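Supplementary Methods S3. Complex input for the adenosine-5'-diphosphate-bound model.
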Amino acid sequence: MAVRPSLRGAATYFRKLGPRSQVALCQLPLSLVVSILGLMTPLTWPSLLSSPVYLAGIMLHLLLFVACFVTPWERLRSSAYLVIPVLDLLAIGLLRNGAAPLLPGLAILVVFPVIWLAASGILVRANVVLSTVGPLLIMVPASAVHFPHLTAADLTTLVLFPLMMLAVFLAIRFASANMRVQQRELQALGEELRELLAESRDREKLLITILDATDVAIAAVDRSGRYLVTNNRQRTFRQATGVVDEMPGQGHQLIFGQDRQTMLPPDKRPINRAIAGESFADYLVWAGEEPAQRAYSTAARPLVGEDGQLTGAVVVYNDVTGWVETLAATEELISTVSHEFRTPLNAILGNVDLVLEDTAGLPPDATQRLTVVQRNSERLLALLADLSATASAALKVHPKRTDLASLVESTLNSARAEADRSGVRLAADIPSPLWAYADPLRIGQALDNLVSNAIKYSPDGGVVDISAGTSGNWVQLRVRDTGMGMRTDDAAKVFRRYFRTDSARKAAIPGAGLGLSITKMIVERHGGRVACASDQGKGSTFTVTLPADGPPPSF
Ligand code: ADP
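Predicted complex, serialized as structure tokens:
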């Protein structure tokens, strides 16, 4: 049985009262009844005013009610207040016997002290005796006048009434014992809840301490974008973006794209992308304005509830300002150096070309040496072009409707001389026309790179084959060779800058490890992607995927 809130409220109120008010409150119902009886007596039963026993009963009640207030219960034993219900029994005895035979029913008032004695929960044995013997004694004087010729009514009153009061006592006792058990259970439950709450607070504190101790900014948000948990660094990010409120998705925010100037539209902000259900990593944004602008690499994972529904997201911000600035400085250095190298190199190459145009007057040995100078200068120039392209963060593409078949054809034409020298056969199977949304110059550059690699890394000759295919809105070009190939773990790294396989180094095949990173950059600027599958000793296949027509759909 649940204890109703109103009952619990009353119990709490009762406990808050002082001992005098508590005792008076228990006595109040009986005192009210007796007061009404006293007030009605002159009008209804005037003959009772001449009964000293009856009047003594009324007086005793009044005295007891006053005693409830004036007795310093707090200084007495905790069971001392039980003297009041015991004396109530006496007062009711006086009332009942003083008013007999006019008001025999007054005996029923005994039920008040009996309830009080039963509900007290202390001195149970003494109280059970009092609650039975008291009513019996109250009934004795009225029946004693018939002694020794007691009537059946006398016997019934003498036996039944005390038994009824005993039953009332026991019923109250059981009910209050039951309530006490429930109270104890509730207390235990409350205690358990308090412990759990304290434990969860401790855990939350620990979590926040750990989060604050980490180097990255972290925010957990609910579906509407309201912050659930954030750490100190995330608050720094927020301040940088000029956001102080709890709704990160809304309002004007100083979050910029990679060019550091274009403010990101709300749906491109990391948190809004995350609560739209996107999972991402390495999403670079700039927070705040110059000179305090900071670069953050952001990542997000959705939070999914037990029912599989999206409940929010966790977004992590890594301050990469130092790294981005170092990279920018390196790139600037590379592009300056390569630019400075190119001018004298062009002069060397130009002069060597001029000399080699007319070799009639030159000894054959000198011609041969000049050809070596020419070849190496050209290689150096190509390397410088690669270096400055890699360093150029602003590598721009201008895609338009382009026929890839004709691009493949011109790539094959330029590669043919080199292929012949290396004993490589070139083959192509491309439907013509093959339309794609591509920058012909840049994609031509990427294709040249893949085909020249395919020839370069086929030192024992073989076949380089270019094929094509379409899938949905995408066009695929495959450059396959039967050359030296590479290990699977190397195939996953070939697009990194300056990466070269051990076998390429050992075979002393010239290269700087930049061509494929440029190829990847070009393809990705088109919204496409490039992949490598390779088998050491058997050959490699590079696949370029480009949008077939129009700006790319997302993968
Ligand atoms: P480079 O060829 O100038 O070294 P790239 O970026 O074009 O630089 O290639 C990176 C590395 O990937 C190469 O050094 C080589 O080890 C490997 N590689 C590229 N293409 C092939 C290929 N077709 N077959 C085998 N290895 C290749």
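The first strand starts at residue 217 and ends at 222. The two ends are 60 Å apart (CA to CA).
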